[in-house]
Amino acid sequence: MRGKREFLKHEYSPGHWSIDYTRAGTSIAVITVRNKYHYSVILNPTDCRGYRIIIRYLNEGDSSLSSAFNRPYTISEQRGLNDVASLMTQVYEKLGLIVQFSQLGNNSQSFDKETGVTLIGSEEEPSMLHLHMWGRGDPDMEYIAGVPLRGPEPGLMFDLIAKNKTHPINQHAIKWNEDELKACLAMFKLKLAEYVNSPEFTEEFGDTLKVTIHDKKDISEAKESSFGFFHKMKSASEDLTTLDKTLETRDDKINPFG
Fold first, then answer.
1. LPG0439 HIT-related domain: which residues (predicted)?
2. Could you tell me if 125 and 108 are in contact, meaning their C-beta atoms sit under 8 angstroms apart?
3. How many domains does the chain have?
């Protein structure tokens, strides 16, 4: 029937990237909303422009990660994604950036012109509730010491899947180098930790969010940029309260506070 949508039924292996999602080494945190819904925050492993991150819904409670694949999502699950996005905007704003984000999923969708059916989910990439977030500003500015923002100038469209390497409106993705990735991870973890321990976080979110920083030892290495003058940031690790546990995985289940 034309206009119909169908969800792919497929079992993904424990080694599939959507299950073993921390293996890229770009994980920032896991955030639990209302003690029920778990979301991951990672730097986009394939594109450093705008300090891009991906916020993804993982699962409910101790259910498997695959339980959140290739299906419709509840209002509560979608609202939780928005809550985490609201939290992460603070990291970008505290770096002096304009925040933009988009909820997509194009890579997991296909359309059959003959039947008019939209298929959601593929064997290569399951449909997952997620959004992309990035910062806008001076592309040449190091808002994080040693890491230029990159990306198109403000006012131009930020094409997330750009392939053209020359057109300024369609600037291509840029891969991370190891040093820049390390610096960006450290700064995001530091800024997130500082905000979570602030009165503003308590006022805005109360006890609805619990944040688990992944490998929080990295934050002691963070350096902040201020118009070319770098200074060592004080470690926030001593102040972490709700951030005591690092991410732990068991099979394809997540237990962020185990």
1. 26-187
2. yes
3. 1
